[in-house]
Amino acid sequence: YYSACNGGAIQSAADAWGDQPLRELGARVTGDLDDQCRLFSWPTMRISKAFVHEAVTSWGQRNKLPYLADLGPISDVEITRYNRITNRPEIITLIDVHGHIGKLRAEEFRLALLMDPNRRVKAPPSSFFKIRNDGAYILLVDGHGYGHGVGLSQWGAQALAQRGYAGDYILSYFYPGGRIRKLW
Question: What is the mean pLDDT of residues 98-111?
Fold first, then answer.
């Protein structure tokens, strides 16, 4: 896996998509390595809870997840679990006006917002953000990165190359414990 810019912290594949945990695709802090990316940090985004409801229930229908598909109007959106190493969000919990709860991975939440066929709302560049409830809206604040953040950061790899590091080192940096083999 690779993405454009991890925003200072690699997301594990297990956190992003529920993949089997692998050391090579684990969570790690990278600091300001890819800070030349224009979306290393991004501005606050304001999204209506009505749109969140529409996007998440549609995601639930497409993915046959009735606990999301059947949610009523959203009253609260919270990050209820963070990665203990990177502080990236892992689980986002939505509570509807009837008290029903729907949980999904932070990356699934981002993908649900991205799937709007009419592109009415600009989707967050990554799932690395904090959430504040603001009446009929949510605010995505302190956003970092562009893409899913799993594995290699293209901007980070470029920064290491510009500092003179060889390809083998760069791959080992982003996929620790991985084996590099020549196949031809």
Answer: 97
